Amino acid sequence: MVAFAINDKLDWTVSKRTLCYMTANGELQPWTEKQAVVRDDNDVALGVVSPSYELVQNEDLKSLISPMISEGLLTVTNQGYLNKGAKVFIQAEVAQEFQVAGESYKGLITLLNGHTGNASVAIGTTATRVICSNTFAMAYSDIGTKFRHSVGVTDRVLESTVVVNYVNDAMRKYSEYVETLASARCTPLQFARAAEEIYQQPVDKMRDSFVSQLNNLFYNGKGNEGKSFYDAFNAITEYATHYSRKSKDGRFNYVNFGRGADVNRRAMSVLMEMATV
Question: Range of 43's domain?
Answer without folding.
Answer: 9-49
